[in-house]
Amino acid sequence: MKSSINFLHLQATDWLRQLDFYKQDLAFLRKRLDEVAAKNTGSEIGVSIEHFENKFRILSDNLDQSKHDINERKAKIDQMGVEMPTHIHEKFVVENDKAEQDLNIVVSDFQNTRKEFNTFLAKWM
User: Looking at residue 6, what is its pLDDT?
Assistant: First the structure.
């Protein structure tokens, strides 16, 4: 895919905003889990609560790692802009966009977990 330095910079900025949104949403989901845990103390729900606590911890780590990777990518793009300021709007070839693939995996996992959690909440709230 051919992209300009300007486009790649804006894309990375959008991805960082998206990750911030999911991080905030994760905090909200954790709060909801705490509410359910406080209202229900049975052993049957305990396993599910532990499952979601672990899943949320993993999601948080994945979001943090993605943010770190995208920040590194953005720093490289910004450096390219400094080195070639007259070429920021010219398109060039970008090989293997692993960052976008990784982000899509994290987002998909988050959305699937949120759906699973909402089903859990419907049962226990």
Answer: 87
